C-alpha cells in the first residue's frame, strides 16, 4: 500500500489571485508547503498538481515533481484525483492519496501522519480530514474557517462556514468545536468515486469539498489534532499573521 502526497495549487484563487507564489519571509508560499510536506517520511511519492504554467515553472526551478491538470476544477480534491490518475506507475485501489492544500504554509509533518494512520490501522475507514480544535471565538466565527460537525464515531456529518456547533452563552474551548485543516487522506477507490460524483447543493452553498460526501455511500472520518498556532492563507491580510508566527516556528528554522 503506497502513500502518495499531492499538493494542488492554482493562481486564480478567487479571494487572493496569485497566492501560491506570493512571498512569505522571502519564499513563495508554495515552497514553504512543499518543503514542510517533504519532511514527512511516509511518502512513496510527493508531487505538485497545477493547471498554471507559472507554477509548473516554479516547480521545475525548485526541483519539485509536478503534474499538469485541467483548468476546469473548482475543488482541490478533484484536481488531486486527476493528478493521481496521471501518476507514473498508476495507483492501486487501496493506496492512500493525501491532499495537502497549497495554502497551509505552517503545517507540520506529524499532521500527515495523523490523517494517514487511521487508514493504515482500520481497513473500513475510507477517508479522513485533519480536524483541529478551535480554542478562540474569533476563529469559530470566521467564515474563512470551515467548521466540522461529527458524530460520536468521528464521522463527519456536515461542514460549514457558519459558527457551529451552536453555543448557548459564551464560546469556550469546552464546546469542542473543530475546524478543517487542509489535509485530507483517501483510499484511492473512494477518491475516484468522490471525483466521479457531481458537485452537490450543500458543497456549492458552503464552498467545501467535504459536503459532497454527505450524498455518497461512505463517510469521511476526522483525524483529531490539538490546537496549535498554525494559520492558513485565505486573503492578503493573512500574510502578516503567518509571517509573525512563522518567525518563531521550529520547522521554518530548519529550512530558512
Question: Which helices and strands, and how do they pair?
Answer:
Elements: E1 3-9, E2 23-24, E3 27-28, H1 29-37, E4 45-50, H2 53-62, E5 66-68, H3 76-85, E6 96-100, H4 109-121, E7 127-133, H5 137-141, E8 147-150, E9 156-160, E10 178-187, H6 188-196, H7 201-206, E11 220-225, H8 238-246, H9 250-255
Parallel strand pairs: 1-4, 1-6, 4-5, 7-11
Antiparallel strand pairs: 2-3, 6-10, 7-10, 8-9, 8-10
Helix pairs in contact: 3-6
Report on the structure:
It is built from nine helices and eleven strands. With 256 residues, it is α/β, with parallel strands linked by helices. The strands form two sheets. Strands 1, 4, 5, 6, 7, 8, 9, 10 and 11 form a nine-stranded mixed beta sheet that branches. It is globular. The model has no long low-confidence stretch (mean pLDDT 95).
- Measured between the Cα atoms of the first and last residue, the distance is 33 Å
Encode the helix/strand succession as letters: EEEHEHEHEHEHEEEHHEHH
- Point out poorly predicted stretches: none
Percent range for β-strand residues: 15-25%
How many strands in all?
Answer: 11
Number of alpha- plus pi-helical segments: 9
Structural shape: globular
Overall average residue pLDDT: 95
Domain count, please report it.
Answer: 1
Residues in helix, %: 25-40%
CATH topology-level name: Spore Coat Polysaccharide Biosynthesis Protein SpsA, Chain A
Quick description:
This protein is 30% helix and 22% strand. It is of the alpha/beta class and 256 residues long.
Features:
256 residues; Spore Coat Polysaccharide Biosynthesis Protein SpsA, Chain A; nine-stranded mixed sheet; 9 helices; 30% helix
Amino acid at each position: 500500500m503506497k502513500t502518495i502526497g499531492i499538493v494542488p495549487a492554482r493562481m486564480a484563487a478567487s479571494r487572493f489571485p496569485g497566492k501560491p507564489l506570493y512571498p512569505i519571509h522571502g519564499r513563495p508560499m508554495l515552497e514553504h508547503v512543499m518543503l514542510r510536506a517533504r519532511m514527512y517520511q511516509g511518502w512513496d511519492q510527493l508531487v505538485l498538481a497545477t493547471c498554471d504554467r507559472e507554477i509548473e515553472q516554479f516547480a521545475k526551478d525548485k526541483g519539485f515533481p509536478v503534474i499538469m491538470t485541467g483548468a476546469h476544477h473548482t475543488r482541490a480534491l478533484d484536481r488531486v484525483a486527476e493528478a493521481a490518475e496521471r501518476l507514473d506507475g498508476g495507483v492501486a485501489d487501496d493506496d492512500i492519496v493525501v491532499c495537502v492544500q497549497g495554502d497551509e504554509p505552517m503545517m507540520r509533518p506529524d499532521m500527515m501522519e495523523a490523517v494517514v494512520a487511521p487508514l493504515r490501522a482500520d481497513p473500513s475507514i475510507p477517508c479522513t480530514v485533519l480536524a483541529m480544535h478551535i480554542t478562540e471565538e474569533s476563529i469559530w466565527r470566521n467564515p474563512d474557517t470551515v467548521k466540522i460537525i461529527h458524530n460520536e464515531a468521528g464521522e463527519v456529518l456536515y461542514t460549514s462556514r457558519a459558527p457551529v456547533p451552536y453555543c448557548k452563552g459564551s464560546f469556550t474551548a469546552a464546546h469542542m468545536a473543530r475546524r478543517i485543516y487542509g489535509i485530507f487522506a483517501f483510499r484511492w477507490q473512494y477518491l475516484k468515486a468522490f471525483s466521479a460524483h457531481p458537485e452537490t447543493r450543500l458543497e456549492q452553498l458552503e464552498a467545501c469539498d467535504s459536503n459532497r460526501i454527505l450524498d455518497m455511500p461512505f463517510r469521511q472520518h476526522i483525524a483529531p489534532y490539538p490546537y496549535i498556532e498554525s494559520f492558513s492563507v485565505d486573503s492578503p491580510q493573512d500574510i502578516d499573521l503567518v509571517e509573525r508566527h512563522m518567525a518563531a516556528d521550529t520547522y521554518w528554522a530548519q529550512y530558512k
